[in-house]
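can u do me a favor
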């Protein structure tokens, strides 16, 4: 029985910040050293951050990444703790590879190139990288044979992990940049348990944490024992260095035990004895699991905080309508940035109810944010008067409704220009899906916090946040009144859309599940509602292409995940489609 002390280094890297990421590595290594760790494991592409996307097309970027990695490797000369670091390398043919390297004693002891490259959903690794090949290598750390793998390598049976176990590895380290989506943690645990059963090895799974554009990484790094037992784990959505002792019931091969001495084909010794030998065994610590609503909420907070901060903003401005969507966005923004960095604006029109304005003011007081009032009636009338001669009459109907929304968008963007604040938009996934929004109006802004959150989930998250606060942080009338854009007298969302309790499951089935109209109807959904929702989703594609990025929390979000053509005449099960126009016969093109 050999014991190895591991440090799972769950850090929040920034794409392209090579020097900043190197500082994070050194800080985590300092902490691992203080904990007497034998081996510190970092996330996938530690040096570059993930995903670097087409930065990889720049030779200078690749070269700089290699130079920073080389300095990190050299810095281990003064350390007793070995480290597994992710970076971009080139193979013998000069192709880019997604690499991990074991560094110790100031040297690179060995390298591993990711073999299974994901090319689905938000992943495009085959665009950038060549797959690794060659025989599996393993390394002896603290008397334990260790094999390295990277992210996707652990997701499939019979893959690289099996090869390394068959070659003699008894501990597998897996570097990850695995984005968060609802239910993802349970999926990972199930897959890791399968790999443990398949290999008989313990697995150290280290995931990055933090927001990167639409993606948010939840961390949740863990160590799983050879019986599939969860031995230790880190909290989600927080940086952490988790140090754990792992007993491995497998002797290292015999041979010289000096630093990095080769003792067999593909095998090198980093150290033969654990630094923690003779010390008390560390107790295993398993982080508590967040409730489903808390998990989504924390993902939204972290994704918002990192997008704002990593892009050089300090403050955000939000149009507060007194509705549920803007109320949730404001609460998330305060939790992400602090009340002093969030600014609310009410922009009432002739159609805004007194109750909605009062609810916005109450919300701002509860959250501790400043709130300004900018009534739009005068600007609205001026715009209408200017437009009337051009359209041959008064502005009415949809033209007038959208005009109000665009006035508000102009005001918010002007505040952004004047103060350097980022505009947080407040549209939800139900609205994004059906086109129930105004281009250059309520969709105008820098970051769409809840663009992947269905309307029904918006209500659940507001109730969760109120429960956490212990009072109606988001005023009760906001949760109980009928949702409305308040752009015409007595307007109600469900005049134009099916009830959200019907709409949201159909959107999920069609958008996230890729099910057809026939599939959804066979599952029991109302045929008229299915046809209406699919028609709205299809014709709003060009709108969504112009929306700002926002936090991804589902298995398929609009943006990187779902890439539908805008010019598209295929209609899934919608009757009466007109191939010439791409819109249902007798219908109208998508409204803007």
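np, heres the sequence
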């Amino acid at each position: 029985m050999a014991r190895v002390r591991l440090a799972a280094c769950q850090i929040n890297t920034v794409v392209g910040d090579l020097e900043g990421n190197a500082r994070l590595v050194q800080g985590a290594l300092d902490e691992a050293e203080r904990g007497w760790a034998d081996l510190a494991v970092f996330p996938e592409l530690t040096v570059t951050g993930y995903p670097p996307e087409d930065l990889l097309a720049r030779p200078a970027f690749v070269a700089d990444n290699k130079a920073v990695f080389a300095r990190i490797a050299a810095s281990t000369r003064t350390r007793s703790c070995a480290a597994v670091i992710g970076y971009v390398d080139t193979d013998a043919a000069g192709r880019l590879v997604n690499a991990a390297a074991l560094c110790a004693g100031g040297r690179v002891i060995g390298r591993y190139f990711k073999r299974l490259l994901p090319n689905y959903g938000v992943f495009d690794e085959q665009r950038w990288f060549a797959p690794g090949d060659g025989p599996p290598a393993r390394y002896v750390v603290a008397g334990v044979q260790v094999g390295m793998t990277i992210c996707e390598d652990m997701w499939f049976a019979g893959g690289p992990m099996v090869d390394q176990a068959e070659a003699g590895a008894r501990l597998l380290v897996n570097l990850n940049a695995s984005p968060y989506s609802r239910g993802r943690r349970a999926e990972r645990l199930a897959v890791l348990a399968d790999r443990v059963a398949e290999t008989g090895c313990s697995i150290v799974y280290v995931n990055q944490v933090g927001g990167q554009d639409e993606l948010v990484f939840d961390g949740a790094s863990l160590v799983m024992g050879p019986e599939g037992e969860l031995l230790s784990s880190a909290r989600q959505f927080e940086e952490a260095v988790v140090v754990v002792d792992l007993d491995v019931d497998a002797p290292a091969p015999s041979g010289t035990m000096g630093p990095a001495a080769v003792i067999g084909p593909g095998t090198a010794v980093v150290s033969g004895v654990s630094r923690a030998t003779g010390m008390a065994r560390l107790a295993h610590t398993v982080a508590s699991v967040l409730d489903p609503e808390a998990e989504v909420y924390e993902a939204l907070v972290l994704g918002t905080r990192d997008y704002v901060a990593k892009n050089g903003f300090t403050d955000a401005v939000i149009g507060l309508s007194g509705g549920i969507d803007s109320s949730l966005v404001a609460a998330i923004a305060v939790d992400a940035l602090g009340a002093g960095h969030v600014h609310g604006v009410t922009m009432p029109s002739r159609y805004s109810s007194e109750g909605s304005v009062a609810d916005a003011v109450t919300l701002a007081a509860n959250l501790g944010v400043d709130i300004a009032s900018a009534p739009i009636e005068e600007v609205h009338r001026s715009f209408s008067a200017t437009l009337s001669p051009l359209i041959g009459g008064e502005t009415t109907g949809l033209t007038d409704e959208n005009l109000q929304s665009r006035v508000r968008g102009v005001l918010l963007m002007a505040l952004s220009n004047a103060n350097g604040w980022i505009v947080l938009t407040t549209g939800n996934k139900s609205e994004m899906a059906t086109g129930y929004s105004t281009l250059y109006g309520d969709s105008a802004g820098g970051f769409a916090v809840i663009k992947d959150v269905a309307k029904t989930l918006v209500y659940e998250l507001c109730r969760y946040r109120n429960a956490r606060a212990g009072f109606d942080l988001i005023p009760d009338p906001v949760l109980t009144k009928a949702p409305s854009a308040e752009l015409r007298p007595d307007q109600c969302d469900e005049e134009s859309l099916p009830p959200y309790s019907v709409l949201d499951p159909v959107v999920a089935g069609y958008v996230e599940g890729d099910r057809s109209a026939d599939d959804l109807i066979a599952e029991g959904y109302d045929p008229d509602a299915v046809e209406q929702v699919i028609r709205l989703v299809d014709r709003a594609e060009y709108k969504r292409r112009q929306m700002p990025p926002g936090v991804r929390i589902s298995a398929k979000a609009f943006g990187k995940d779902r890439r539908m053509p805008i010019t598209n005449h295929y209609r899934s099960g919608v009757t009466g489609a007109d191939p010439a126009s791409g819109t249902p016969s007798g219908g109208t093109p998508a409204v803007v």
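The chain has 17 helices and 23 strands. hope that helps!!
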